[in-house]
Automatic annotation (TrEMBL):
Similarity annotation: Belongs to the arsA ATPase family.
Species for this entry: Corynebacterium phoceense
Domain of life the protein comes from: Bacteria
Transmembrane domains' residue ranges: none
Classification via InterPro entries: ArsA/GET3_ATPase-like, ATPase_ArsA/GET3, P-loop_NTPase
Positions of the ArsA/GET3 Anion-transporting ATPase-like domain: 3-297
Any Pfam family: ArsA_ATPase
Molecular function terms, GO-annotated: ATP binding; ATP hydrolysis activity
Lineage, highest ranks first: Bacteria, Bacillati, Actinomycetota, Actinomycetes, Mycobacteriales
Protein name, as recorded: ArsA family ATPase
Amino acid sequence: MLTFFGGKGGVGKTTLSNAYALGRSKQERVLVVSTDPAHNLGHLWHQEIGPEPVTVRENLDLVELDPEKATRAHLAQAGETMRAHMPERLHKEVDKHLELAAASPGTHEAALLEQMAVLIEDHEGSYDHIIFDTAPSGHTARLMALPELMSAWTDGLLKRRDKADKFADVVGSLGGETKSQRRDAELRSILYRRRTRFAHLRDALRSSTFNIVLTAERLPVMETIELYAELAEHRIPVGGLFINRRSPAALPGRRAVEEEALATLCAALPDVPVTELPLLDYEVGSPEALEEIATYLQR
Ligand SMILES: Nc1ncnc2c1ncn2[C@@H]1O[C@H](COP(=O)(O)OP(=O)(O)OP(=O)(O)O)[C@@H](O)[C@H]1O
Ligand SMILES: [Mg+2]
């Protein structure tokens, strides 16, 4: 099972996803994955967390994906694929193209997505539940749309190769297997592997749960409604809305502002379950505090 926590910057995604994971870990084997480039799981758990899962509690492991490293690995692999595809005299062009790609927006997301797909493939069997603490919302929605795009891209390439292959088969049957045929077969197997990986991720996303974290204010509410629509477009189900840092009754004016924002939210998304969390008057960045917060998240 996969669960995502997403939302605007600073709303409490890391706090809530980790508290939720801690709660779940009493019943199942849980892995928390941070996909935010500005990792902070280490601060929260007072322990160093890295690209390999670290056990912080019984049944609870944490891992921080490294998007920089992912981008480099992704481009190295893309380079390999492209070089196999191109005549040697164009290999310098390939390198130039990759340098440009490294700096272009989207590469980072694609690399991260590939890393997520590999992580799910590698660890699905070892955990009952993988929980993602994602980067702020715009980024997340784009990330969620990518498997679709990338599968389509890979499909297109494969179709073209299949046509070329049929032609090569006819020509090839006149002589032996050529170097270019072997190269094509290699390329096709790389593309098939990627396609399978992205298709798998797309299916996994569609049967996952996406939780949106927000505060009870007008702007976060509007953004949540937009994010919900974007996720719906990609058929990613939203499991719950987590309203964080609700003001105490001792601040009636503030409460009224929040109620108004929440009324807009519930009118727009009447069928999505809502969980509220109070503004806590102690430091919440510790494992002890997470235990406490987990009790609010039990449903
Ligand atoms: N219910 C709460 N009461 C009090 N403080 C809270 C509460 N929830 C979160 N915080 C605090 O608010 C800050 C932001 O929370 P957190 O880091 O979980 O947000 P985030 O959405 O992950 O942020 P980012 O987008 O930067 O990753 C942290 O200092 C956290 O300790
Ligand atoms: Mg965070």
